[in-house]
Amino acid sequence: MNLPLDSEGMLEATAGLPEQVEAAVQAASGLGGLPQRELVENVVVLGMGGSGVAGDILLATAAPFMAVPVVVVKGYAPPAFVGEGTLVFAVSFSGDTEETLEAATESAVQGASVVAVTGGGELAKRAAGWGAPVVPVPTTIPQPRAGLGAMAIPPLVVLEEIGLFPGARQWIAQAVTQLKRRRDQLTGGSSPAARLAERIGRTIPLVYSSGAVGSAAALRWKTQVNENTKTPAFYAVHPELCHNEVVGWGQLGDATRQLLTLVNLRHDSEHPQVIRRFELVTEIMREVVAGVEEVRGEGDGDLAQLLDLVIFGDFLSLELAAREGIDPGPVPILSELKAKLGSA
Asked: pLDDT (tens digit, 9 = 90+) per residue, 49-79?
């Protein structure tokens, strides 16, 4: 594809996801200062925005196989149960995310074992003071959302080294294989992301998926369209949406048919009844949206299929940006918000 305006090199960073994942495995390997397996009673992942997706990916791919509970926190306060039996991953691209800093500091005070995944900043300084291991995030990555591999993969590797997620490197290797395969499709002459962007046009994507894998992928699609394309996008997850959101499409069809395109994200871990729910809800939605599209995750294993959906959505957001002449990199409104918060 060609981005007419890309001041921060977002296209190159997006295409480099497979290699970023491979590099993250090496960066997270052989850390000292990790807790022993028998001392870990629970795992907490702290992170916001593009960094917070690391927690969503861990929750979707590792947590189902782990013998201890996992909680993802996107806010200022860690759970009250955090203590000496807690392993905390504090993930911050810049190292200066105020919510993550506050929650990580409180966790350390409460006796948790902290592993920082960061590009530096205050988090790296505090981690050094706590004697906590730090996995470095390359500072050459232009934006937090472009550093998904560098931030989401290290916790999986650390969990394998502790003994909580055996086989992580094998799942990661399979994901890399699929990411390279999909990248070749998306950067080729007839990209499926470009074709989907053409069909979506100037409508608003409404992304539906299912389960933890689908929830992480759908949220990523939404936020990438928000930040790269600078347009609204929305998401919901089966089966929950069948108990509330679907009722909301009973009115205003004349408006929603002009505004929304439904995109179903599918994967192999769907419950049999969820497969049926997709069919039934899609028929309902055809009456109230401009169009219905489907993208199916490919690859071996949940991690491969999740990251496959992620890279497809990342390229889609860039294709949508290109169609409107939007520079996907800068997010000035976020910088303004942070500046105003800091001056309060």
From this structure: 999 999 999 999 999 999 999 999 999 999 9
